[in-house]
Amino acid sequence: MKFVYDFTEGNKDLKDLLGGKGANLAEMTRLGLPVPPGFTITTEACKVYLATGEEPAALRDEVSAHLAALEETMGKKLGQPDNPLLVSVRSGAKFSMPGMMDTVLNIGLSDASVEGLARQAGDERFAWDSYRRLIQMFGKTVLGVDGDLFEEALDAAKAAKKVTVDTDLDAEDLKKLVTAFKKIVEKETGRAFPQDPREQMDLAIRAVFESWNGERAKLYRRQERIPHDLGTAVNVCSMVFGNLGPDSGTGVAFTRDPASGQQGVYGDYLQNAQGEDVVAGIRNTVPLAELERIDKASYDQLLRIMEILENHYKDLCDIEFTIERGKLWMLQTRVGKRTAAAAFRIATQLVDQGLIDEAEALQRVTGAQLAQLMFPRFDENAEVKQVARGIAASPGAAVGKAVFDSYTAVKWSRSGEKVILVRRETNPDDLDGMIAAEGILTSRGGKTSHAAVVARGMGKTCVCGAEELEVDTKRRRMTVPGGQVVEEGDVISIDGSTGKVYLGEVPVVPSPVVEYFEGRMHPGAEDADELVEAVHRMMSFADRTRRLRVRANADNAEDALRARRFGAQGIGLCRTEHMFLGDRRELVERLILADTEEERDASLKALLPLQKQDFVELFEAMDGLPVTIRLLDPPLHEFLPDITELSVRVALAEARQEPHENELRLLQAVHRLHEQNPMLGLRGVRLGLVVPGLFAMQVRAIAEAAAERKAAQGDPRAEIMIPLVGTVQELEIVREEADRVIAEVEAATGTKLSLPIGTMIELPRAALTAGQIAEAAEFFSFGTNDLTQTVWGFSRDDVEASFFTAYLEKGIFGVSPFETIDKDGVGSLVKAAVAAGRATRPDLKLGVCGEHGGDPESVHFFHEAGLDYVSCSPFRIPVARLEAGRAAC
Ligand code: ADP
Ligand code: MG
Ligand code: MG
Question: Pyruvate phosphate dikinase AMP/ATP-binding domain location, by residue (predicted)?
Fold first, then answer.
């Protein structure tokens, strides 16, 4: 196996092997751009080192050969005293992990070669500055010396000279500093700073390998879901110097604004400095545009190169460059990260430039980015004080009074206050408070902390791990950097999309993207911004491309109308239980408690017109589009009073010797219906089979509503869906009754109705016997929430708060199976049921309802599984449309 590639050998497609940095350095070299020569040690070598604790046997010789070739090219030898070649040893993994791993510059400098460098450059100060940088970086990253020791020595040197910036230190000062640095190294490591240049290089290479498993790097990978076994490549790159005086410098540039997507000149430049100074923010940089004034030739060349790179990568690139005495060098490029808004704008701009086609444009944006753009946001023009920044854990903009415990959060929110729950970290005891709060702020924990996971599950704004905040829950206050104290009740604002924390109330404005979907802003209109324009175009690309249809989960006309505006092509799930709450609850209670047929019929009769009116409105809102109505699903006890409250009432009445026959009867009924596992109990089709007349009433309401709409020249397209079916017999019995009721309504109204009857597939047995079930079903809708619950044996209402955090932290799964469909388990049942169902009934309509219908990754799975549609909550519809388009490319 070959472990070392010269920059002239690789290309951009070898990221697995050469890492992103190495692959792109090679690509730029191939393009003929000015890249300092060098070579890359592969990730394979790193993997061997990490597995065995030793470099692969062949590595040393290969490095020697490539180093010799490099020395030949450069006409000087590594660390050679009179005319030294210097190199940087740079980490670079497949996925960029900014600042997480190590890089050492100026390798090859020593007591001997520093003099040579000074003569060669004709600049003593520069040479000693480079040497002190080497000892500092090498000492810290390779030898593990506490970096503060060097910083303190540097500060002391500046203080002694009464200057503030390090460029004010002259050669003599720097010589003294080098002596001080060397002493620090010797004292801390027990040996002298290595003078042999090859030893420096080998130690640095090893340090880069080891930095893969540094704590920072590991944490970052966990948060970003980057696999731990990829390893890093190591780039050995001949040094070019930005610190050779005012005609030298270093900078970063973007081919477009990564925040907005706007084309232009974006970046920062720092005169007379080496690369790490820009990142470290040691001195103030100037905007890149000023380079035109400082060094016009280099500036023009840089702009040309940026254009070459953009046309070549066909995407936004970011760039690191250095100018050495008026000569421009490219040190890094990659396809740059960008905000969600920039992603949409850049994708459409590139289409307009003819660089990419629509299908490629769709791959450049994600549903998650679209979702981000749909959250309300803080008014950018507001003048407020940002006090801290944590991890953007769950998007949204939340404003409220700071409270420091769950109890207060609940109490205050009950009295109508908006609160932000502030904790060091949350645990399951905080759940009530999290539900009550507008948003959650913690000072500890990352993207997989309890707070983050639970908040995302609830769709609640969350900023976690804001470590600058000192949260003191005992004294109910927190201290922000600078010492200001936020007491309980003080208003704060948190932005879950950026992680920013503000004191005071930041005004919230609706997202222009939602205004667009709602039809309140039109692309092309004067007030429409370019973002809306871009989103509009990407949505039409997606709609033109996708095969999956997208429906909404909606229970009332208002939601249905919104869903329609958002592009829903029907309703995939109308839950009828919501229609039985409120005033109607009493009627349901009476139905459940009925002792005689007359009593029961009376309640059903009272419910019928109410239920029918619901459907009339819904069919009107969705005129011409399918509306799938699920017959009553939840366990009956959900419609009865709480058992504890009722017991107390009965006991009190008894003690006071008041009449309480009704309460007692109710209590007995509640006891009778009480179940240990209600989600596995008397619900769904089982209810329909056990409570006489219930499903018949619902079917009649649907049929009569449809007939009424038809009479009004409407186009109702209802579909009747039976939940929780486990065997075809259940479905057959319900079907027979439904067919009879529909025939009665048809006869009574003289209208021909077409009301397909289908079932949910949400129990493993239903999926396994889907071939039989399809005999009695005209459509299937996969209820993947219950299916996940029953396949895994997880109680969906409990797991998030109890053990999912632990599971996520242990990496048992990367994401909750309730959030993204578990392809291997639940997904294979879905696929099997699709195949079996279609074998029985080739025109079987197939859809999915449930949270997964709006989850990007799951949408791709449903596309591949061959479903006809996904159904999701109205707000997720644009996301599902976009992802369905992306899946079809
Ligand atoms: P990171 O991945 O953290 O950006 P890099 O390997 O890119 O680390 O290097 C850190 C800094 O050092 C960057 O600003 C880079 O431009 C600069 N640098 C790296 N190699 C060289 C070199 N051979 N000559 C000059 N500057 C360099
Ligand atoms: Mg870099
Ligand atoms: Mg269900």
Answer: 59-284, 291-344
In a domain, 641, yes or no: no
d(CA 685, CA 790) in angstroms, rounded, equals: 16
Cβ of 147 closer than 6 Å to ligand 1, yes or no, is no
616 has a pLDDT exceeding 70: yes
Which uninterrupted H or E stretch holds 500? strand 500-503
The answer to whether residues 550 and 881 touch, using CB atoms and an 8 Å cutoff, is yes
- Ligand having the closest approach to the CA of 90: 1
State whether 96 and 179 are in the same domain: yes
pLDDT at 459 over 90: no
Higher pLDDT, 401 or 589: 401
Q: Are 288 and 267 in contact (CB under 8 A)?
A: yes
Which CATH number do you get for residue 433? 3.50.30.10
Region at 524 (left for phi over 0; alpha for psi -120 to 50; beta for the rest): left
Residue 36 Cβ contacting ligand 1 at under 6 Å: yes
Ligand 1 within 6 A of 95 CB? no
Task: Determine whether the shortest distance from the Cβ of 243 to ligand 1 is under 6 A.
Answer: no
What are the structure tokens assigned to 835, written together? 């195949």
**Are 560 and 554 contacting, i.e. CB atoms less than 8 angstroms apart?**
yes
CA 532 to chain centre: 22
Residue 462 is part of which domain span?
A: 376-509
CA distance 119 to 117: 5
The structure's pTM equals: 0.84
User: Is residue 164's pLDDT more than 60?
Assistant: yes
* Residue 630 maps to a domain: yes
What is the helix (H) or strand (E) element at residue 102, kind and residue range? none
Q: Which ligand is nearest to the CA of 330?
A: 1
- 197-211 and 59-74 are packed helices; what angle lies between their axes, rounded to 10 degrees? 120
| Ligand with an atom nearest the CA of residue 848 | 3
State the residue for tokens 């500890």.
Answer: 444
CA distances for 762 relative to 545, 699, 848, 866, 876, angstroms = 29, 21, 10, 18, 22
pLDDT of residue 581: 78
Please tell me if the CB atom of residue 108 comes closer than 6 angstroms to any atom of ligand 1: no
Convert the pLDDT of each residue in 488-538 to its tens digit: 999 999 999 889 999 999 998 888 999 999 999 888 877 678 899 999 999
**Tokens 């997989």 correspond to what residue?**
448
Q: How large is the average pLDDT for residues 461-469?
A: 93
Same domain, 220 and 296: no
Q: Is there a domain that residue 659 lies in? A: no
The whole-angstrom separation of Cα 679 and Cα 637 is 11
- Give the residue, by CA position, lying nearest to ligand 1 atom 26: 275
Ligand 1 midpoint to CA 469 (Å)? 32
Torsion 793-796-798-804 (CA) sign: positive
Q: Is the CB of 275 under 6 A from ligand 1?
A: yes
- Ligand 2 centroid to Cα of residue 129, in Å, is 21
Atom of ligand 1 minimally distant from the CA of 238: 23
Check: complex ipTM more than 0.85: yes
Q: Looking at residue 280, what is its pLDDT? A: 56
Q: How far is the CA of 269 from the centre of ligand 1 (A)?
A: 14
Span 271-275, average pLDDT: 86
State how many domains the chain has: 4
- pLDDT over 90 at 308, yes or no: yes
662 is a domain residue: no
99 Cα to the center of ligand 2, angstroms: 8
Can you tell me which atom of ligand 1 is nearest the CA of 103? 6
- Half-sphere exposure at residue 426, Cβ-oriented, CA atoms within 13 angstroms: 36
Same domain, 694 and 806: yes
Cβ–Cβ under 8 Å, residues 392 and 497: yes
Nearest CA to ligand 1 atom 17: 275
Q: Is the CB of 553 under 6 A from ligand 1?
A: no
Strand segments, DSSP code E, in 257-316 are: 263-271, 286-287
Would you please indicate which residues are annotated as catalytic (active-site) residues?
450, 849
Angle of helix 367-374 relative to helix 877-888, nearest 10 degrees? 160
On whether both 42 and 171 belong to a single domain, the answer is yes
